[in-house]
Automatic annotation (TrEMBL), chains A, B, C:
InterPro entries: TRIC_channel. Its main location: endoplasmic reticulum. It comes from the Eukaryota. Residues 301-310 have a biased composition (Basic residues). Keywords: Endoplasmic reticulum, Ion channel, Ion transport, Membrane, Potassium, Potassium channel, Potassium transport, Transmembrane, Transmembrane helix, Transport. It is found in: Endoplasmic reticulum membrane. One of its GO terms (cellular component) is endoplasmic reticulum membrane. It comes from Heterocephalus glaber (Naked mole rat). Belongs to the TMEM38 family. This is Trimeric intracellular cation channel type B isoform X1. It holds the Pfam family TRIC. It catalyses: K(+)(in) = K(+)(out). Intracellular monovalent cation channel required for maintenance of rapid intracellular calcium release. Acts as a potassium counter-ion channel that functions in synchronization with calcium release from intracellular stores. Activated by increased cytosolic Ca(2+) levels.
Amino acid sequence: MDSSWDDLTLTFSHTSMFPFFDIAHYLVSVMAMKHQPGAAAIARKNPVSSWLTAMLHCFGGGILSCILLAEPPLKFLTNHTNVLLASSIWYIIFFCPCDLVSQAYSFLPVQLLAAGMKEVTRTWKIVGGVTHANSYYKNGWIVMIAIGWARGAGGTIVTKFEQLVKGDWKPGGDEWLKMSHLFLYLGDYEYCSNEFGSTDVFRSASKLTMLGSVIFTFQHTEHLAISKHSLMFFYTIFLVTAKITMMMTETSSVTLGPFEDTLSRMLFGWQKQFSWCETKLSSNGTGSSASKPVPDASQNVKKKHNKKTE
Amino acid sequence: MDSSWDDLTLTFSHTSMFPFFDIAHYLVSVMAMKHQPGAAAIARKNPVSSWLTAMLHCFGGGILSCILLAEPPLKFLTNHTNVLLASSIWYIIFFCPCDLVSQAYSFLPVQLLAAGMKEVTRTWKIVGGVTHANSYYKNGWIVMIAIGWARGAGGTIVTKFEQLVKGDWKPGGDEWLKMSHLFLYLGDYEYCSNEFGSTDVFRSASKLTMLGSVIFTFQHTEHLAISKHSLMFFYTIFLVTAKITMMMTETSSVTLGPFEDTLSRMLFGWQKQFSWCETKLSSNGTGSSASKPVPDASQNVKKKHNKKTE
Amino acid sequence: MDSSWDDLTLTFSHTSMFPFFDIAHYLVSVMAMKHQPGAAAIARKNPVSSWLTAMLHCFGGGILSCILLAEPPLKFLTNHTNVLLASSIWYIIFFCPCDLVSQAYSFLPVQLLAAGMKEVTRTWKIVGGVTHANSYYKNGWIVMIAIGWARGAGGTIVTKFEQLVKGDWKPGGDEWLKMSHLFLYLGDYEYCSNEFGSTDVFRSASKLTMLGSVIFTFQHTEHLAISKHSLMFFYTIFLVTAKITMMMTETSSVTLGPFEDTLSRMLFGWQKQFSWCETKLSSNGTGSSASKPVPDASQNVKKKHNKKTE
């Protein structure tokens, strides 16, 4: 690619997140938190708790990656500027008279702009996470992928756990199945709360982050012959486009669908041809997952075992 | 202040917590744990589990601050003397024949003395936490406040989580609201269990710790023109007086009440004058917090959004 | 002991766990995970979540000891060989056509061999944990015991918490009592799921690990006049024998039973003679643990207190 294009991507990759993109990220996160039921009431009753939740929403990815790397989870508090910025956004959103900010945010174009800018911060976070993990473990590429994933999309799991602890969100019924998928839900939490889409949106957004983490890890370990800045450019374009598309048309299968189906069919689908002997297992598995409590299931496992050993 | 007074406060600030004040702290904590329903039965059935719970009650603040600073949570185990001291107190309280200790402790003067001495240890813990955090992050004053708070009053959150995991204490109904306030409950757990007061006592005790953490942080960053030892003296006097008052008269509004009201009215109350447009929001918030599950709430959020965009 | 015997034990203590014993450990752990109800269905629906659970089962002890020592919990991911080995075993077990592996594993001799080899890895883990903790805290013998215990048998607590978060396993009813014993359940999780034994098996297996951790700690601090390699030899023989015996005869009281009874009678039983004054306490404790919710219990505590103070 010619040098002018190279300059463009290089300049783009040097864009500072600080004032505007961070503001967009905090805005989207805190609005997502406010759209949870009762959030406004809690903010009135107990501002400190609400502020802490807002911090979890805003800095969750950093906190999670700090925990995974055994760094102080409070590290984000040392960045006073960003903490004060997020706090003021939380204050404006929750305590602005007549709820002006929410009403302004409820217009689709504003949401599209904010969401797009938030996606840009996601790319920066993934790259930062991968580089940071590499400074810990040379060639620890699994760790690099995990940290990039955690920092890029980890706000969700932290807030999910926070809700779990609050008892606000109780996994139960088929919820626990969703919860068991939590590790795949490191996705766009805000689209959980204001219901822009179903859990597919989570999963696809989370998978996009995962894909980015993998790509940037390979680029960092020089398995991809492309410069980091142009990769950042392309990936950001891809992310923003996918997010905007997901928000306009509330479907999520547009992204990665075929690729995933092929992969999962290659990896986990080829046993389907042995359908004549899969039936027993699958029925057993699904049945016990649906209804049976642990003792029953383990008993019939035991029965099966005894049958075998007789 | 003249030098004799200075000497007094200096001597006071050099008091060693080790034998007697630590004993009072362990006594109050383990008695609080014993007053939980079923604690005595568990101690008979499973001493090891009971002992671990007692350690959590006694060293919870240190454990929490270790976690927040990414230090080994087991660090407190290296202080063999204190661990053995706490263990022997646990043993005496739970396995003393005829339950003599509990009966002795159930006299109010004993409780007042023990609680007063425990408050003294709280001051020492706050100062230690602030200094320790400052050794990590120079001028990281938010972290210093947080660590001082956690170490000074963090026994509760650890034991709360331990109960949550046990399933002994399930947040549900309006409990989850209380739980959402957990971050404010870093308070006097013992008054939760033996019901000396309501959640107000928590909150006020926790707020006293928070206030102390803020004060000592400002003193440490030289924003307060007062020597640390005299500040420790005054704050300890204040803490002990407040605690004794709270225990004698089972009210808690004596402390910080007016100050808080003013502050919260200044910060979060001035929108009340816009009552004509606050109604919709607050009713919506409270209603959904009370009863509606997540999907409903997010649906009516979505509806609202669609109305807006139409 | 003569030198040939010494050579034997020395050679044994230098056995590498890597290919075969690790495979046995992963096999037993993943089979235990597969025997949970619904595990097979989850693996089909969401392979990534299932893979993560499998990693938790396989490397739980290491993760727990990393958390307790404030090391990165992701550290195990840097050992690429073992992660790939465990992943391939997970893949074979869950996606082998016709479920061949499970059927092969359901024969008792295979289970006995795998379980025996797993016990060998347990010894190595305990020794590694004790040595590792000693490199942190010289003479911190309590920490050494705890880390040896955690690494030797910590897979359970991690998976228990993972189930708790999933909501798959809800402590409730007398479950919460069991959960309160969780710290004693750092035992053989696989015998939880395929029901080879009752909770006694847990406790005894966990106590065997605890005993080993204590023994190796004392050996490491030179309180035991026996060389480490012969101690490893004897302890491994003991572990394997105990495990095989437990699996053949589904009883668990064979091990440590008398020793424990004596100890607990010495420590916690001698108050029984004061039965005339124990009755009130124990009845009160058991009663409230069985049924009464927190407020009632604390109220009658308060009542008792008021009676006292009147």
